[in-house]
Amino acid sequence: MLNKWVWFLGVFLFFNSTMGWGQPQIVKPGVKRAVQKSISKAGQSRFSADKIEKILEARALRTQARQTENLKKGYPYLFNEDFPGVKITGWPFHKGLKGPYEDLPFWKDLSDQAKRNYFLAANNRAGALNLKAKQQAVKNIQENLPALWCDRIKFTPQPFEKLLADMIPPQAKYILLGEEHNESQIQVFLSKFFKEYQAKYPGRKLFLLTEFLPVSGKKTLLLQSMKVGDPAYAYIFNSASSNGMTVKGLEPRYVYEGGGILHIDPQWARNEDLAELWVTPEAIRVRNKAWISRIKELRKNNPDAVFMIYAGGSHLEYNAFASLSLQLPREETFVASLYADDPTNNEARDLLEELGEDKYPFYLEEVLSWKDASLRRIAGFDVRLLLSKQDYPFGKKRKK
User: Fold this and answer.
1) 36 close to 17: Cβ distance less than 8 angstroms
2) Strand, coil or helix: what is 339?
3) Mean pLDDT, residues 373-399 taken together
4) Pairing of strands 383-387, 367-368
5) 283 near 211, Cβ under 8 Å?
């Protein structure tokens, strides 16, 4: 069975090497003929499983070397998981979960190590595109820092849930809510925002689509379990359901239930030489691709509904790699970035704060937005809110 798919594998690898993700590149005719010739030979010969293994292993090493050369030219503001990996542990898993690439005709016939090498090579290519996206985002912000600072909207004091509901255009059908994870005030804020939005548009059908739930499964049982480990997240989903919103999961089950570890190339590893597999550039790409498919599927039966998409900001912001916001209708999409307002944390929240430093102190702004749509896209969002636990406490206040 393995030999049957050698030709498909060769064709797939060839086109992935000559095409960026959605960005065709020019291939020199001589190179194309040479590759086609090698594919033709592969189709006529009988490759062993060991041979396929070596092909994919060589491809992983070759793309890693190429990405290393890219990184030597500069790698601004990358996270540990953005760097090349040397091996994968904990994946593939064998408990009935389907993972990424299952639609490829040759996938089921590859060994576990060949699958890992396939992912490593794909992640190196995605890492290169992620690096380009970050470099472009940095350049765009640097060139527009004075305008981003001087042209920001001055807001009058008001509850943030009302401010956000009023800012969202009436025609928006995709409201993207990108959060900083594990900050309970964000979930409390969102519960208030949902009620405010429903009061403003009482006749609208609202969906809450989220990465924090899988695409299938018994939601009631999942939320019961979530109450123990992640009570603030359980609170927001139960609150949304009890207020008439339809809550659906976006996350593939292989991410929700299955782990995986990427071992980072030691020359790039920072404090930690391990990263979760499903937060790497290639994982973000395949997860966002799965989310978009799910969203399109739900849209077919709900053409007029408003979809509120709740996930980490790195999935949703305009200037992020493989962003969901860039795959949705522009005139119907609104992005809100939600962060904790924590005076004890001196780390920059985003590229605006990183690049603005003290000359342009964006970190002092509880609300950030601009009338100019181009500035919003450069910043990565339509509005950014800093939310405090004092204003949005989770749970009942204890009596003194």
Assistant:
1) no
2) strand
3) 89
4) antiparallel
5) no
Per-residue DSSP letters for 137-205? HHHHHHHHHHHHHHTB--PPS--HHHHHHHHS-TT--EEEEEE-TT-HHHHHHHHHHHHHHHHHSTT--
Over residues 301-342, the pLDDT tens digits come to 999 999 999 999 999 999 999 999 999 999 999 999 999 999
- Under the banding of pLDDT at 50, 70 and 90, the label for residue 221 is confident
pLDDT digits (tens, 9 = 90+) for 233-248: 999 999 999 999 999 9
Q: 53 or 155: which carries more pLDDT confidence?
A: 155
Instruction: Kindly state the DSSP code that residue 87 receives in the 8-state scheme.
Output: E
* Separation of alpha carbons 318 and 224, rounded Å: 34
- Indicate the pLDDT class of residue 158, thresholds 50, 70 and 90: very high
Write the burial class of residue 379 (CB in 10 Å: 0-12 exposed, 13-18 middle, 19+ buried). buried
As given in the structure block, the two tokens for residue 214 are 């899988």
22: left (phi over 0), alpha (psi -120 to 50) or beta: left
Percentage of the chain modeled with pLDDT above 70: 86
Q: What is the rounded CA–CA span in Å between residue 212 and residue 240?
A: 14
Element at 340 (helix H, strand E): strand 333-340
Identify whether 24 is preceded by a cis peptide bond (ω within 30 of 0).
no
Q: Is 25 helix (H, G, I), strand (E, B) or coil?
A: coil
pLDDT score, position 17:
44
- Burial class of residue 156 in the structure, from the number of CB atoms within 10 Å of its CB (0-12 exposed, 13-18 middle, 19+ buried): exposed
Indicate the average pLDDT of the chain.
87
Two tokens, residue 378: 């450069």
**What is the pairing mode between strands 306-312 and 206-214?**
parallel
Q: Which two tokens stand for residue 210?
A: 């989220």
What distance in Å separates the CA atoms of residue 163 and residue 197, rounded to the nearest whole number? 10
CB neighbourhood size of 73 (10 A): 8
Query: What per-residue string of b and e applies to 15-38 under the rule 16 or more CB within 10 Å gives b?
Result: eeeeeeeeeeeeeeeeeeeebeee
Report the relative pairing of strands 333-340 and 383-387 from DSSP bridges: parallel
Cβ within 8 Å of residue 297, ≥6 positions away = none
